[in-house]
Amino acid sequence: MSKTNAIRILDSNNIKYETISYEVDENDLSGETVANKVGVDPDMVFKTLVCVGDKTSNIVFCIPVTTELNLKKAAQVSNNKKVEMIPLKDLLPLTGYIRGGCSPVGMKKQFPTYVDETAQLYENIFISAGIRGTQMKLKPNDLLKLVNGNYAELI
To answer: N or C: which end of the chain has fewer CB within 10 A?
Structure first.
């Protein structure tokens, strides 16, 4: 497997991680399917959502794949009155990543990032390695440090 930008960033920051690859089904990119394919509790697999706020522009939220982002809570923690998902067509030009392979690590630009507080319940969590078919297993606090993020109640 070739190293993604996210993996290179973990390497350059001496962050301990593991990569887990899985077979991609283009018809089912759901996080629950990813969790089943890598053989872990779906609550430990976090999806990366990119939103736009009415005051602060783009914001990144990482939440368990089994949940939905509470837009009111997301707006509150990011100092916005309103937050909404960016259009899918804007994901690649904005982040450098495609749907199903979006990582909070290594986006084209560093955006304010919030990780759901439930990540702290686990020694390790799983996030996209920046490409469909590969997850990175790492400590939640290491992820937070890398993206200069904060824990927040998001679901």
So the answer is: N
